[in-house]
Amino acid sequence: MSVLNKQYLEQEEQIQALSEKWRDTLENQTLTNEEEYSKVDVFPIIPQIQLQVDLSDYQGFILELFTLLEENQPGLAGDIAKLKEVLTMDVLGQWFQEGIAVNHLFFEEFAKNANVKDWLPMFAAEHGVRPFLQKAAAELNEILKEAKAHHGCPACGEPSRLAVISKTGKKEITCPRCSYSWEEKKISCAHCGCEEPGKIEILRVEKDDRAEVHVCHECKGYTKVIDTRKLIRKDAPQLLDSKFIHLDYIAQEHGYGVSEGKDVH
Ligand SMILES: [Zn+2]
Ligand SMILES: [Zn+2]
User: Fold this and answer.
1) Ligand 1 centre and the CA of 198: distance in Å?
2) Ligand 2: centre distance to CA 164 (Å)
3) pLDDT band at 115 (very low <50, low <70, confident <90, very high)
């Protein structure tokens, strides 16, 4: 493992620990309104409802994330100072909405106007919304079970690019943003639902039987499938996603993709 990868993973682990702490602070809040979400009849639900959030919580998460990033990468200090200056409550409200929607264009434009690294606003905004997505998905759990066709996460809409083989040998698609997970047939495409024999191919990593990539010839999509029975420690899906990022590169080298790119920093 290269030094860069090691540092990247250490930072991911630190961010994950922060994220779990943030998620705990939201435990006693209710972010969704049943009257509102019961009227929504298509998935994903969260982008169609207004989450009841206290933006000062969101602000606190982002500021803590900035501190962590700055400690790991002192070169970001200037950019972070610039962002802190423009991050008013109004802007935080925008970041929250666009962070939920994963609006790449909005954040690229924002970065350009603020004259900071192009990935930084989106990275901070998107990580800051995850604890809210996770809390909301937990509140919506019952209604989410009604989703039949999954062409992405029924809670937040994230493309299904990560699955785990659970202790009982079942294939569960897990959302690295909101942590909602659902069971799927072993051989089926998590993007288009294709189950035709021969259309789903399995790419394996040499000398590593813990993980494989399921690619679909029909829609050119892929899903990383990680056998958690073969892992020494059970990491959160967000960390598994990062630890097996080489599988994304393998899939992409073979010409497969997911409907939305995930930025890697
Ligand atoms: Zn999700
Ligand atoms: Zn497919």
Assistant:
1) 29
2) 18
3) very high
Band (259; pLDDT cuts 50, 70, 90): low
Residues 6+ apart with CB under 8 A from 256: 213, 215, 216, 220, 221, 222
Using the mean position of ligand 2's atoms as its centre, give its distance from the Cα of residue 10 in Å: 33
Q: How many CA atoms lie within 13 A of 41 on its CB side?
A: 1
The reported pTM is 0.90
Å from CA of 54 to ligand 1 middle: 21
CA distance 237 to 175: 7
Environment of ion ligand 1 (residues, CB < 5 A):
153, 155-156, 158, 175, 177-178, 180
Q: Which of 187, 158, 184, 159 is nearest to 172 (CA)?
A: 184
Per-residue model confidence as pLDDT tens digits over 155-212:
999 988 899 998 899 999 999 999 999 998 888 898 888 998 899 999 988 888 899 9
